[in-house]
């Protein structure tokens, strides 16, 4: 058995005076130290600390950069989805490669991150055909190309190249992205919503994350500016708010009602933060929910829109899972559609919708494509958003092309349509089955309750840990759910993210587990998980 | 004739109280107003301003987001390379499309930005073949593929896929980039420099710009932190420092000595800023220079390294033009090679080298690939850089692949080698000829002096403007070089960037012009330019 030691960065930030030149150049130690070690090995003993302080004082100049002298906002930022547990998993994976029999499992199962293709999901053929042709347009002039590519992929590649000035897929584009592709995306949005959309409002980005950063950068002036975020939340938001020096204003989703989002709770938290001198600038809503998987009802969304309108908040709508709906009684409605259906126009409500090529049925995470649809801002503020986009020149053109493809996939009658639909529906229906199988498995276990994943790619089960397990975690200096996740990893190779990385009601413990392992692996994962959990509960049962 | 009006954002920031709801929702007006207009039309007259203030006071809530309430760092940031002159050019281009005979030229010639493929440069075939195959790996199993792709491109695609876990080009990679590709890049660096390089020190990024932002984010805590930057500088640096709230500490390059970088000047500026309470954290060196085109001599680089070592500065080496050298008596030396040749190791000097797939002979701007090689930082600071990288998950995988290709191009004996070398040398020798032709043309004109472009992609001629022209610019409320650039654009369609966007010795005026128009267009550009310049001088000669 091993135990967590406290997070290195936090520790370093508060114990900076004992840092030595020797530890600075050493490799990062594992976050897991043997439980019987009398002192944490990565913290030098007092004598060594004193000696190193002397060395520092004697040198001609202090090290130019140390944890004491970097931007404290960077230190403060945390991103659990790729945090300590994942580093530990990567180290175990290296151990496995060197010595395959050294651990009680044969492989690491990365259920920590929504990264479908890393777990074997195959890319959608039509999309990849088009990308491949756009990367090497010389192919389009060759007759042999027809033996390798479908005719509609060739046709689409031509159409896309015609939209790119000089057909130059290797040129920087307009800072918002290629105009013709933005128009195509806008047409896709209009078809989805039944309301007008304009390519002028689309900002193509390298995935949704840079888009979120851009909006945070625009809105946050100081720690007195707050952003309302769901708890639990996808930690991109807390990380981005920390990096930009703002305040996260939490609102709690109600686990009892399937992670319900209540406007009363929004109001309560808004008023509470205002009484502390925080100016709340925006409300983040993730729909379908991450890590919580709920799909908002239209009536609920209307109340949220009304709330933003009344309180003068920017509505930041994370809608990257809009294609991932697994239950028949729920449907995705974009916030823009809801706002327009209420009669609100571009003049009434600043609203940003984030979309990504990384999710949906396509799961093209490595392509880093996405967009934000920006409505309801004045022309001069829009110019400022454009300026920030222009400092990074443009997003990658392959990602731009892919973003246009997901918003305009093959249509009935196209050569690829049938095979495309088989691929698409195969992935989505399999994801629905996996979500259900995992949810049922979790709910069958002692001390675990798990809401349905109505959408998105995750389950967020609650673990009711025995007091003795909480005590063991405390003794190891770590959060109980992090302790549980660490034990799970070390026993089974399954990587999940502790609920503390997303935020949760104090005193409750959760973890996020993706539904993404390939379907044939799910039974084995469930059985490994069950075996671990039963042993864990036996070990710690009060 | 038209004239500039003052920059909208600056104006708005200081005249915010007169902003009305009506102007907020209006489209952005052209930055060029007719010279005889009695009042600038985009600023409402006092009566309208009062009325709009009343409307604001009467509405239930102020507009959620206005120039008064966004992050002032965003307002402060400027990026001339895609600034006002480019917006004006884009508007003229639209005018041309609607009415081809409306302007005294037939096309806009974008010499404002280093974007070779937008001006007709063709991508390198081998690189595109490999990208195309990696985008659609199913092709690799088909015999027909050999009819369309070179055998070494197929072989290389296989090698790359083997380096990607699960061959999943659509998966998020490691946050620093795919390990096998980083190792390949490190091998390329080692072969270039003759000193060891490690893939663990490589951070793959979506071009060099996000890498620069990451380092600024790490180093800048407040406006009391300064970054030494060359003047003239590529405005990414001033923009990034502004966005992160730091202070740009200028050091002036010496135009008289071919944009020489003198350590005495660095020391002087460092001490001056220190006396103002600024803590200088880092020195930015752009080599080959942008916009100035000089290539640093090794002896000069040694002094710069020594300076950084003595003063405890991070050396931020922008080396994205390392392949673009056009003179026989100069050679590119990476700062890491220079530092290592002086005996400095990883423990002595924090040094970051930025590289990009956008420049060189490949010019793959739209692919958004690049890397930074990070050496000389402690392990705990490195972890913080890793954490910031991980918040954005990873850079785009096609860009990662391309970065590995430029650092490991075809070798003698490979099927593609000869045609690759023809493409590569063709581009580089043509760029050298274009640089020379433009330099000579500029130097042949009254009142223009122009240093040689030893490297990079730009000329930065000085224009000695007649007093009368300076007066006309002042009357138009704009900088004299911006006035000149605007007149040039409106007469010829040629887009250059005013020197004021890069910084220059006060009282001197310049513009940056790329050497990137295709070679057959250079004579016409020169003759248009000459004609404009002679008329301009005739108009304003004192």
From TrEMBL, chains A, B:
> Where in the numbering of this chain does the Aminotransferase class I/classII large domain appear?
165-516
Compositional bias per record (Low complexity), positions renumbered to this chain: 12-30
Pathway field of the UniProt record reads: Amino-acid degradation; L-alanine degradation via transaminase pathway; pyruvate from L-alanine: step 1/1; Photosynthesis; C4 acid pathway
Keywords attached to this Swiss-Prot or TrEMBL record, sorted alphabetically, are:
Aminotransferase, Pyridoxal phosphate, Transferase
- Which Pfam families did the record assign? Aminotran_1_2
Q: State the superkingdom.
A: Eukaryota
Name the GO terms of the biological process aspect.
L-alanine catabolic process
Q: Where is the composition biased (Basic and acidic residues)?
A: 1-10
Bias-annotated ranges (Pro residues): 31-47
* Cofactor needs: pyridoxal 5'-phosphate
Q: What Enzyme Commission number(s) apply to this enzyme? A: 2.6.1.2
Tell me which Gene3D superfamilies the record gives. Answer: 1.10.287.1970, Aspartate Aminotransferase, domain 1, Type I PLP-dependent aspartate aminotransferase-like (Major domain)
Output the Gene Ontology terms for molecular function: L-alanine:2-oxoglutarate aminotransferase activity; pyridoxal phosphate binding
Q: Where is this region: Disordered?
A: 1-48
- List the catalysed reactions: L-alanine + 2-oxoglutarate = pyruvate + L-glutamate
> Subunit arrangement?
Homodimer.
Instruction: State what this protein does.
Output: Transfer of C3 units between the cytosol of mesophyll and bundle sheath cells to maintain a nitrogen-carbon balance in the C4-dicarboxylic pathway.
Q: Which family does it belong to?
A: Belongs to the class-I pyridoxal-phosphate-dependent aminotransferase family. Alanine aminotransferase subfamily.
The record's listing under PANTHER family reads: ALANINE AMINOTRANSFERASE, ALANINE TRANSAMINASE
Protein's name in the database: Alanine aminotransferase 2
